[in-house]
Amino acid sequence: MLNNLLKHSDSKIVCIDTFEGGIEHVHDAINMTHVREIFFSNVEKTGRMDSVRVLEERSDTGLLQLLQENHESFDFIYVDGSHYATDVLADLVLSFRMLKVGGLCICDDYLWEGQSDPRHSPKMAIDAFTSIFSEQVQFVPVINTQFAFKRIQ
Ligand SMILES: C[S@@+](CC[C@H](N)C(=O)[O-])C[C@H]1O[C@@H](n2cnc3c(N)ncnc32)[C@H](O)[C@@H]1O
């Protein structure tokens, strides 16, 4: 993203991650300390550390912090944190308030089938959000298992 999306030298990105993993990481026994190290090492390699702000906390807490700071709005939001529908719904509702009209939101794992309980997957939350906000969002077709929409008002 830093190399391909943040082309302008003034562009900024905010990353919110607990680096504690989620249900998918427990299942796959992924070492999150190592994932965190790789993340920071990859950022460093781009030489764009100054363009990146990392909030190492739950996404709802981080998003509320940005809202409280009256953070300027975003052109692009990528939702790919907790897979629990309750968390994804909170991520969408809170982050949408900072998405520019004309801005793009991509939600990962829309068609993720890692859990049999649909409340443990993002789809239910993305469907609920886009139904409730249907007048403000426009579906953008994507070719993989993600879901994308543009804010139109
Ligand atoms: C599927 S990974 C995706 C990470 C990153 N978006 C990527 O593509 O490499 C999900 C990430 O969400 C983080 N996470 C899980 N629950 C979270 C929560 N409630 N708030 C913030 N981050 C969370 C995990 O630590 C993990 O790094």
What does this protein look like?
This protein has 153 residues and is an alpha/beta fold. The strands form two sheets. A four-stranded mixed sheet has the order 3-4-6-5, covered by helices on one side. A two-stranded parallel sheet has the order 1-2. The model has no long low-confidence stretch (mean pLDDT 95). Helix 3 packs parallel to helix 4 (85-96). It contains five helices and six strands, in the order βααβαβαβαββ. It has helices at residues 23-28, 32-46, 59-68, 85-96, 123-132, and strands at 13-16, 52-55, 74-79, 99-107, 137-140, 147-151. It has one domain (13-151): Vaccinia Virus protein VP39 (Rossmann fold, 3-Layer(aba) Sandwich), CATH 3.40.50. Bound molecules: S-adenosylmethionine. S-adenosylmethionine binds at residues 16-22, 24, 32, 58-59, 80-82, 87.
**Proportion of strand residues:** 15-25%
Largest sheet: 4 strands, mixed
Ligands bound, unique: S-adenosylmethionine
* Number of alpha- plus pi-helical segments: 5
In a nutshell, what does this entry contain?
Strands 3-4-6-5 form a four-stranded mixed beta sheet, covered by helices on one side. Strands 1-2 form a two-stranded parallel ribbon.
Keywords:
binds S-adenosylmethionine; Rossmann fold; 35% helix; 153 residues; globular; two-stranded parallel sheet
List the helices and strands and how they pair.
Layout (H helix, E strand, L loop, with lengths): L12 E4 L6 H6 L3 H15 L5 E4 L3 H10 L5 E6 L5 H12 L2 E9 L15 H10 L4 E4 L6 E5 L2
Helix pairs in contact: 3-4, 4-5
